[in-house]
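ERR on first pass: missing label on line 2. Operator R.T. fixed the label and resubmitted. Corrected input:
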Amino acid sequence: MKKATPAYEFSKGIWKENPILVQLLGMCPTLAVTSTVINGVAMALATSFVLIMSSLIISSLRKIIPSSVRIASFIVVIATFVTLVDSFLKAYFYDISKALGPFIPLIIVNCLILGRQEAFASKNTVKMSLLDAFGMGIGFFLSLLVLSTVREILGFGTWFGIQVMPDLFNPWMVMIMAPGAFLTLGIMLGAYGIFKGKKSRGV
Amino acid sequence: MELILLFISFVIVNNFVLSQFLGICPFLGVSQRIDAAFSMGLAVTFVMSITAAVSWAVNNLILKKFGLEILEYVVFILVIASLVQLVEMFVKKVSPPLYRALGIYLPLITTNCAILGLALLISLKEYNFLQGLVMGIGGGVGFTLALVLMAGIREELEAADVPEPMKGAGITLIVSGIMALSFSGFAGLIK
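pass 2 clean. output:
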């Protein structure tokens, strides 16, 4: 295996190993909260914060945590930060916290976070783990931004609550409901596959 | 009567996977074969029913009594993790054939968001004990239904001519979208 550089660890999460498009991790919040851009962005920021803080703690403690109870320890660390985020949102952004509902506490079982702790932070230095967490966080953020942009524009005719479609546009109700989420993400994966396929044929 | 309606509502109308987006990871991951999907559904239903009862008891008899609601998330996830461990040991001892059938799916249930979601929803909606239990069983049955249906379609899809970039997860999500669309036809059946 070639030696990983810091730049690689940072950038792999954004495109090459994008958590949503390639690894298919953390699908539940991805599909559930992306009916509007503001909810999608809030969810992405909350998840990235928990991911970065947990990576920091876990990678600092990686030599102390016994491997037999590592999963339980990871979950306790993650759950603590999620409680923190939840209280913060309730105190300062009550509307968003209400709109996201049970999906804020469900960050605890987001496989993206636990997966990165198990696969990366528990084996690498603090610096590398932070870079990895930032990269994955940005990749997650971008995917959610694209998905929620498509759904909000087609489902409400707005973007960030600002009307972007002409008055004649008839909103597609289906886009803000469950089927729209599945269909949009399916098409996004297909588009990603086309880009990737072109690149690998070119080499 | 009210409980029967609640049960039906969580099996088809408010299906955990197709309308509430809970448990998507196993739904996409373990739906290649019908028999594996059924075993997974069985294991999840089993754990969900027990989780509903235990998390309700812990929340109402311990956390609320001592004003410790802030610890809700940490406690719930620990309860679920230890329950899954306990169920695993119990099944291994009592029924080795069932244990072999469930295989690696049992430990995976800890990170299934349907389970934690169930515990949180019961606490959020302030259900009583019986309602919570019915929701747990109904949710599990609904999860199994969605998973087995999906596995059936995917077994057929293997023979279909799917465009290269859409293969795998892409087409699975499109199929889920169409399934969710047909399930949304049940909306309004039960208030």
